[in-house]
User: Fold SRPBCC family protein from Cohnella boryungensis.
Amino acid sequence: MKLIHFYKRLFDEAVRAYEPVWEEEAVPYGHLWSKYNYPLQEQFQIKDMEPDYPTLMYSLVLPESYLGTTIYEEIKRYPSKYELSIVILNRQIWLNATLQTDKLQDSLMGFLNQARGELMNILDCLIRRSEEVEA
Assistant:
């Protein structure tokens, strides 16, 4: 069994027990689940990074209104054991926390909840830019 299938099975079992609202979507090079029952869309992805270990990625999908905030500065300043990044596509922002599975120190749900907490902390610190308020 490949490692990515092992982690997929672990995640499927965990969400079935604790957060059954996750929906799996077909993607190349891994597995992707989305959750829509929160004001912000959440995504969890396991990417096959052969020959390296699979990578876990938790994302919050933010609306266009976050483009006028200090999100770029906050993500750079935030201390995290995860690799934090921002991707902008079609006027939406993906705020990502990524970890390679060989560095995983928690369960998958532990990673998911810790990453969710860190990204929510970043959102709590955002300030709308003054030029956006004046416009």
User: Anything to note?
Assistant: The first strand starts at residue 23 and ends at 27. The chain has one domain: 3-134. The chain has a mean pLDDT of 90. The chain has four helices and six strands.
